[in-house]
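Worked example (supplementary).
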Amino acid sequence: MKRLWSLFFLAIPVGGVLFFVYSRNRWWFPENVSTFGGEIDNLFNLILWITGVVFVLTELTLAYFLFKYSGDAGAGKARYVHGNHAAEMAWTAIPCLILLFITFSQMGTWKKVKFRSHFPDVQPFAEVTAGQFEWRIRYAGADGKLHTADDLAGLNDLHVPVNENILIHLKSRDVLHSFFLPHLRLKQDAVPGMTIPVWFNAMKADTYDLVCAELCGWGHYKMRGRLSVHPTREAYDAWFQEAAAQEERAQ
Ligand SMILES: [Cu+2]
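After joint prediction of all chains, the assembly is encoded as:
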């Protein structure tokens, strides 16, 4: 009977893998539309594979020993072992090598996405200021400079042209927020007192979620914006002209 119960522990790896297979086809990431998103997904999958294989092997080993030494069929008493130098060396060195491997695998992508020295050489496109509970946007306008007369203000809906390197200056006016574009695999904290540059290049015209990924207060849930990617530069310029004219009329 005990042996039968020990098999119960097999339910964890078996159930875990089945649930993974089921969810992968239903609740996975949204489509990637950014130039560097594919690399991020590959890194995610690499780490998922490594941790997945280790998880399954560990659980199977556990279930095997539970079954083997569960006591019904005279497996005998477990031996008391004080330590095993070779085993300790192995379980320290192998994870260490795996972590080193992951470290070196991600360096190129991290540099491309996060290192200012490797950003595309473009003028800031807009300034996005996070605040409880909205995204305030200031477009640089035709002169490519922020805080000049031709700036355009926006709220919660960031408009950009497709296939262009977009540089955003990210700020916060109160607490920590996080600028998250799931379809572009881009996430960056907005920190009070700091201006943090982020960049992306959207490859497909559509509207996408812009959400806050840092619990920032009671209204965090509604701090949801939009990224509108226009199909051409001309379409974006037309939108900009129209919005600027509207702003002028309102004044
Ligand atoms: Cu927020």
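Two points are worth noting when inspecting this output. The domain at 126-250 is CATH 2.60.40.420 (Immunoglobulin-like). Residues 130, 177, 212, 214, 216, 220, 223 surround copper (II) ion (CB under 6 Å).
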